[in-house]
Design a protein that fits this description.
4-stranded parallel beta sheet, alpha/beta, globular, Rossmann fold, Dna Ligase, domain 1
Length: 317
């Protein structure tokens, strides 16, 4: 019997529906359950062929558990090693090399010194930074957001240089990105599962959180095809089994705004019933597929094209 484990935190609707859906399919030799951990011994395998991770980004203990599980043969969705290394600024940098339009973006050192550092720790950093060049490149209005993490935390809209310095003073030790504002006419949030199954959802980030999926943009077939191609390209290079990509259309161009979401919102009350049903069904089928493919004791992780090409000597792009 191959077990599929769901590792989750406070959320309930998606994990419970996922487990129920896998089990309701009654696939021979496959069962699903909530992961149970009572001890973690180095180099010892888990009882799971597949673990679907929804919470390790917030719980370092779980991330360490998943790395050990992956090392001993478990298929982890998503790859915990890549997830640990990835962040939003790198995503934007990669996008510029794989023909995906993204807003002009710069990364900024934290406003306050990190713990256990001093001024002497930054002898390679120019002071002041080339603020004139940075502001000319990005322009205003602009957005400032953490270079890693999600959930719309610590996101600022900035109207001017003075506004930037006022808001940046509030960010403490957070490393922030300053990003060009894309004034869009249409906006979409796109699930991608298994780097092949795409669900394109109308989305309005300017609405209150509970109304963001209430948007009703109507993309034609050419737009749908272009967005699907971009979403698959991004997730194939990053190597995420489960991710969301946000696309904002400006002047006929879809800009990738946010595409480092390896534990994206999948709650029924926020994404809506139709989207919820799709993500439950598609993720259940994909997890079953990965369980059936799992080889005991092997590396069963998904590695993105960026990593695979880097290690094989192939051209990266």
């Amino acid at each position: 019997m191959k077990k599929i484990g769901m590792l989750f935190g406070k959320e309930r609707s998606f994990p419970e529906a996922f487990i129920d859906r896998v089990n309701s399919k009654q696939v021979d030799g496959i069962t699903a359950e909530a992961v149970k951990i009572d001890k973690v011994m180095q180099g010892e395998p888990t009882e799971y062929a597949v673990i679907f991770d929804r919470i390790s980004q917030d719980v370092p203990f779980y991330r360490a558990y998943l790395k050990n599980a992956a090392l001993t043969g478990t298929t982890v969705i998503n790859n915990p090693f890549w997830w640990s290394a990835d962040e939003k600024f790198f995503n934007n940098c990669l996008a510029t090399k794989i023909d995906v339009p993204v807003p002009k973006t710069v990364i900024l050192p934290s406003r306050d010194l990190p713990d256990d550092t001093s001024d002497g720790s930054f002898s390679n950093l120019a002071y002041p930074l080339d603020w004139e060049g940075i502001f000319k490149y990005v322009g205003f209005p602009a957005y400032m957001k953490p270079f890693a993490g999600g959930g719309w935390k610590n996101v600022y809209k900035l109207e001017s240089i003075d506004d930037f310095f006022d808001k940046h003073a509030e960010t403490g030790q957070l490393v922030m990105m300053l990003q060009e504002e894309i004034v869009f006419t249409e906006y979409y949030r796109c699930y991608c599962i298994g780097t092949k199954h795409v669900r394109i959802m109308s989305y309005e980030p300017r609405n209150p959180h509970h109304l963001r999926y209430a948007a009703d943009f109507q993309p034609d077939e050419s737009k749908l095809k272009l967005m699907e191609d971009i979403v698959v390209r991004i997730c194939t290079y990053l190597g995420y089994d489960f991710n969301t990509v946000e696309l904002a259309w400006r002047d006929g161009v879809p800009y990738a705004i946010d595409f480092c979401n390896p534990a994206p919102d999948a709650e029924r009350t926020s994404v809506g019933q139709e989207n919820f049903d799709w993500v439950v069904e598609t993720s259940a089928n994909y997890a079953i597929e990965k369980a059936q493919e799992n080889k005991s004791g092997a590396d069963n992780l998904t590695w993105g094209e960026y990593v695979k090409r880097s290690t094989s000597g192939q051209p990266l792009y």
